[in-house]
Design brief:
alpha+beta, 27% helix, globular, Alpha-Beta Plaits, six-stranded antiparallel β-sheet
Length: 186
């Protein structure tokens, strides 16, 4: 089923922003949850999924006595404002079964984090962009670099430079299975 508005018409009216979303899951059918999150991002108004990274199996951070995560990064082009996009991401999480409140470092069905929104730096009570831990996490940097090498606006370094200086020594395993970009089928 096609989206009700085309991105071409939206881009003629509103500027499009390049946004990187980190997605992760470590409960149940992890790959299916990642796929469903991407499917739901495809259908957001004023938004297009441009690219999806390979999926990596990664070690949990913080509370390590839990299942490994599946992680990926999605590149969006969107006319949504950061706060609107954040709310849509929260709605997708809740729609896939994630509770609104959860302990930090706990297992989760799905997690969607706005990593970068153009080259903006935003710090409010509800939203921090770039993601405050981005430069310390290989499970974000590696899939992000698979699809692009944007500049990290806080330091002016590229993602490749951040990865080269990252002290995270966790192991990432690239999966053969991946996430399909359902948008190309629309």
């Amino acid at each position: 089923m096609p989206k009700p508005t085309t991105l071409l018409l939206v881009s003629e009216i509103m500027p499009l922003h390049k946004v990187f979303i980190g997605i992760g899951s470590n409960i149940g059918d992890r790959l299916r949850y990642l796929q469903e999150a991407v499917n739901r991002l495809v259908f957001l108004d004023k938004t297009s999924v441009s690219s999806v990274s390979p999926v990596y199996m990664t070690e949990p951070v913080g509370e390590t006595s839990q299942n490994r995560f599946y992680n990926s990064v999605v590149l969006l082009e969107t006319a949504l404002l950061p706060e609107e996009l954040r709310q849509h991401c929260k709605n997708i999480e809740q729609g896939l079964g994630r509770s609104e409140e959860y302990p930090r470092w706990s297992p989760r069905v799905i997690d969607l984090d706005i990593l970068l929104y153009d080259n903006q730096i935003i710090s409010t009570e509800a939203l921090s962009i770039p993601h405050p831990q981005l430069q310390y996490r290989k499970f974000v940097l590696v899939p992000l670099l698979d699809i692009a090498n944007p500049v990290y606006p806080i330091t002016g370094q590229s993602i490749k430079q951040l990865l080269e200086s990252c002290h995270d020594r966790s192991v990432l395993i690239k999966l053969r299975e991946g996430i399909e970009d359902q948008q190309s089928a629309l």
